[in-house]
Amino acid sequence: MGAYTTGAEVLALLLDLGVGPVARLSATDVEQIVAGLEAEVDGILLAQGYATVPATGPRDVAMLGEQVRMKAAARVYVTLHQPERSPDWVRTADIDWSEFLERLRRGQQRLVDQAPAAAQEGQVGVTRLRVLPRVSEDSDG
Q1: Taking the CB of residue 83, how many other CB atoms lie within 10 A of it?
Q2: How far apart are CA 51 and CA 128, in angstroms?
Q3: Taking all residues of the chain, what is their mean pLDDT, rounded to a whole number?
Q4: Considering the entire predicted model, what is its pTM?
């Protein structure tokens, strides 16, 4: 069982999307897909300085669960069917997933129930200074 969603929830979403029952993959099989997607999210959260990873706040779990569930459903669909015949929702889920991860990386998308402990990308500016040796006014050179 994943931290943000489960294989059973992904299979239920596929039914809601009109795909029908998935006979060739079990909830346990889908859990492996969910685990990989959640690890991707958690890696970004760790890099962004969040202290509690996987996230445990109810709003964070709801937000992340929705993203992981939809991407997992798209991946299951592509696994079972020919990718070039994918419906629009599969392509949309792929685009939404990529954009969501990019917003997390850039600090444009943040968790709701916790703040990062460290500055996120784009929040810290670095200025280079050049230090020159001091020359006294009394020197003859």
Answers
A1: 10
A2: 30
A3: 87
A4: 0.79
